[in-house]
Specification:
The complex is a heterodimer. Chain A is an alpha/beta fold. Chain A is built from 28 helices and ten strands. Chain B has two domains: about 5-90, 2-Layer Sandwich (Ribosomal Protein S8, Chain: A, domain 1); about 95-180, Fe-S cluster assembly (FSCA) (GMP Synthetase, Chain A, domain 3), CATH 3.30.300. Helices cover about 35% and strands about 30% of the residues of chain B. Chain B contains five helices and ten strands. In chain B, helix 1 packs across helix 2 (about 65-80). The chains are: A alpha/beta, B alpha+beta.
Chain lengths: ~650, ~180
């Protein structure tokens, strides 16, 4: 999904100035990468996961007459209204007038089986004024499925040259090379296509009607499978089964793997304690460095599994059907079915969820989904919920016939999803004011066996990106937190002067902690969180959870100086503030509700920044969720106190 | 939203053939048009207009270019198509037929004829509603020319001129050809 999609043969990325430069422009799944390979001979991945080409790739090709030209494969984009940096790249390159990197001509790829939507991109690209040649891809697929397109009439209607290519056939590519050689004399539209978003679909319909376009029929095998999977009753049952298996796999299969990772880091920590004798260094290495990395790597099995499942569901073509089935539910939030995929991914982590919004062609839908996605109950909330719920109910407590902890957990998951949908609906409404609705398109790819290579490549890219981007943030935060919790350094004289027994290690730790910079920060936060019943210790936990929510558990563990920082429950239950237990029912409720709504995750903020290309949206998301979290937590605490 | 798009007219840079929904307007020569499009005729931005079944031909006035005027004309035309009663269109079957036949001979039908080494040209019968299509080149002596042209050209013509009623052979000795007549 990010770099590396084109394999390891090392495409040239040096700017060969002076050579004629052609840019390949097209939406994801338009066959761009395949054509790029056919033209340049480089090996590249031809997967069908949205956003397969993100980095910039160039290659040389030789035209008739022996002249070499450069071909640049631009990132796949559905429109030139950029919202992600990938799409921004396309806009920047096409806009850069006078720049050496600006292409001399464009090859715009249109998928013959989804022409109506693809024409929207062409209409925008035509506004750049660069010479255009349209390459109709999947023309063989169109013909096989009894679709129809009069290429000559299509060329006339568009006013630009048109050539059809099919994967694995040389004729089309040879014809394209001939056309490329004469790019200076390509015809241009006498009147450019409309720019108004409302006029474009009407223009596209007119062009397609003049080109005698006949939509392809569904693949026969696909049609038969769809008769079951898209059936209102059977399809819904299959869908629920698939979703159930999905969650079971993520939460149960990942658990033993997570245990291995935890055990490994526990062992590593012991190793450090054994061999590093410098006290503060040993503590720093085992608590901050290993604890920090370990706390993140525990979630790698889940991330990997999630991406395996999504890649398989996507590769088989089922995900599009799930999105279709969910379309009606999502429509209540003003969103389309594909937003469901993003929200589903957010159950594991909001980051892949936000990245999955790339498959949404509408910028407004993407924003609305991104604003809602962090409210889904991500896996990082799980340790926090488990800790707090276990403080709230004993293991054998029951609500009706059901386990009380289970019911509360289900409620947290359910209301997280409801909140995410509502938030998305509000943002959709808010951002759509005065703007026209974009037409809704959904592709139903034919069913196929997912290719192992694609699945592995996607999972690897996702896991590597997760490790690279998140470990830096979490590691840094944990280190900073450790320093704040242990500084300023106190010599024995100071500690003794405060009336603490310097031979009692835990008493010294408690003194250092109580007078640490972190404690000062936690106390400084008290005016904000005091109405929710939080004291400075919880505040530090809340603050540290900004790095990653699960840090909350580890931090409280450190703060409570419990034996096992990963299970500080007993020590926590004994904590007191003023004359009440710190973790009384109203406070726990307030904490649960706070964590349900608050955007306590800087990685998510970072990804929002990356995906929207501006600080504006992450700031809006963080602010609205903080206000929402605080308000809801306050209401929850007040209500619970009243009934207490 | 009325769907339309512009097509270039070969050898006539001042003309654009706007493809519009079939039957939007009665066919013929445009005498006047409603709203902004009417104003464009009035201030000589547009010099002439001709309506066929599936398209409106518009010609720019002197000193104008489609590169500049295209988007404005497109909006004005879309708006004007929304009020068909505001148009005054004078029937001109011969002129319409000549344009359509010429267009087909410049386009797909012409491509076919040229690929066989032939040439073809449409010409209106002086003062009448009929058009003569003359074949030349390799088609001149081809016994199948008449039949082939009939099939190819008629298919296109029937689609674009549904009120075409009659096709008759041109007088013998004219080098092969067809006489087409538009009627109601």
């Amino acid at each position: 999904m990010t770099d590396g999609c084109h394999g390891g043969s090392g495409p040239t990325t040096t700017a060969d100035s002076g050579l004629t430069r052609f840019a390949l422009v097209g939406s994801p799944n338009s066959g761009k990468t395949t054509l790029f390979n056919a033209l340049t001979g480089l090996h590249a991945k031809t997967g069908n996961y949205p956003g397969v080409t993100v980095s910039k790739f160039e290659g040389r090709t030789r035209l008739d007459g022996g002249r070499s030209v450069l071909v640049e494969d631009l990132p796949g984009t559905y429109s030139l209204d950029p919202i992600s940096p990938d799409e921004q790249i396309v806009v920047d390159i096409l806009d850069a007038s006078g720049d050496a990197d600006r292409p001399d001509a464009m090859l715009v790829l249109l998928n013959a089986t989804t022409l109506r939507r693809s024409l929207g991109l062409l209409a925008q690209v035509a506004q750049t004024g660069l010479p255009i040649c349209v390459v109709v891809t999947f023309a063989d697929d169109l013909a096989r499925r009894n679709g129809r397109l009069d290429m000559a009439a299509f060329s006339r209607a568009l006013g630009v040259p048109v050539v059809a290519v099919a994967a694995g056939q040389r004729d089309g590519v040879a014809e394209l090379r001939r056309l490329m050689a004469g790019h200076r004399s390509w015809s241009r539209p006498v009147v450019p296509p409309p720019t108004d978003a409302a006029e474009v679909p009407a223009w596209a319909d007119s062009v397609l009607s003049a080109s005698d376009y006949q939509l392809p029929e569904a693949d026969e095998r696909t049609r038969r499978i769809d008769a079951v999977l898209l059936h209102p009753v059977l399809g819904t049952i299959v869908f629920l089964l698939v979703m159930f298996t999905f969650f079971q796999t993520i939460f149960t299969v990942a658990a033993p793997l997570q245990d291995y990772v935890e055990t490994f880091f526990g062992w590593l920590g012991e190793l450090v304690a054994e061999h590093v004798h410098l006290g503060w260094l040993s503590a720093f290495l085992s608590e901050a460095v290993i604890g920090g990395i370990g706390g993140v790597l525990v979630f790698v099995p889940q991330i990997v599994l999630l991406f395996v499942l999504i890649a398989v569901l996507e590769g088989t073509g089922y995900l599009a059907r799930a999105a279709f089935l969910m379309d009606r539910v999502m429509a209540r939030a003003g969103l389309e079915g594909r937003a469901f995929v993003a929200l589903l991914s957010s159950y594991a982590c909001a980051i892949p969820g936000i990245m999955a919004t790339r498959s949404l062609p509408s910028a407004r839908d993407r924003l609305a989904t991104m604003m809602g996605a962090p409210l889904m109950t991500c896996s990082a909330r799980l340790p926090v919920y488990i800790l707090l719920v276990s403080l709230l109910f004993a293991g054998e407590a029951r609500i009706g016939p059901f386990n009380a902890r289970g019911v509360v957990m289900f409620a947290l998951y359910f209301f997280g999803a409801v909140a995410a949908m509502l938030a998305a609906a509000v943002f959709k409404k808010f951002t759509s004011r005065g703007g026209p609705m974009l037409p809704f398109y959904m592709e139903m790819p034919p069913y196929q066996v997912p290719r192992l290579k694609s699945v592995v490549a996607e999972v690897w890219t996702a896991a590597a990106a997760f490790l690279r981007k998140v470990t830096t943030i979490i590691l840094a935060t944990t280190v900073v937190l450790w320093v704040l919790l242990n500084l300023p350094l106190r010599d024995d004289a100071t500690v003794a002067a405060a009336g603490v027994d310097t031979t009692d290690n835990s008493a010294v730790s408690a003194y250092v902690l109580n007078n640490s910079y972190a404690a000062s920060i936690g106390r400084a936060m008290e005016p904000v969180f005091e109405p929710l019943g939080f004291d400075w210790r919880i505040n530090i936990g809340v603050l540290s959870s900004l790095a990653a929510r699960e840090t909350f558990v580890a931090t409280l563990g450190q703060v409570a100086a419990a034996e096992d920082p990963e299970d500080p429950g007993a020590a926590l239950a004994a904590m007191r503030v003023d004359d009440r237990p710190l973790f009384d029912v109203p406070t726990i409720t307030a904490l649960l509700v706070f964590f349900m709504f608050a955007l306590q995750c800087m990685s998510t903020v970072g990804v929002l920044r990356r995906e929207t290309g501006t600080w504006r949206w992450p700031l809006i998301a963080f602010s609205y969720m903080f206000v929402l979290a605080w308000t809801m937590a306050f209401i929850a605490r007040t209500v619970v106190s009243a009934f207490g | 939203m009325i769907g339309l798009h512009a097509e270039r007219v070969a050898d006539d840079p001042r003309a654009v053939r706007w493809v519009v929904p079939a039957g939007s307007l009665p066919t013929g020569r445009v005498r006047s048009a409603p709203s902004a499009l009417g104003a464009m005729f009035a201030d000589a931005t547009l010099s002439a207009g001709l309506v066929e079944h599936t398209a409106v031909w518009l010609w720019l006035g002197d000193g104008r270019s489609w590169a500049d005027m295209g988007p404005a004309v497109q909006s004005a035309l879309r708006e004007a198509l929304g009020e068909p009663s505001g148009w005054v269109i004078e029937p001109a079957p011969g002129e319409v037929l000549e344009r359509v036949a010429g267009d087909l001979l410049n386009g797909s039908v012409g491509d076919f004829i040229r690929s066989h080494g032939g040439t073809a040209a449409a010409e209106r019968v002086a003062g009448g509603d009929a058009v003569t299509v003359r074949l030349g080149g390799a088609c001149s002596n081809c016994v199948a020319a008449d039949h082939t042209l009939r099939l190819r050209l008629m298919d296109g013509l029937r689609r674009r001129c549904p009120d075409l009623v009659e096709v008759e052979a041109a007088e013998p000795g004219a080098g092969g050809g067809l006489t087409l007549r538009l009627g109601r």
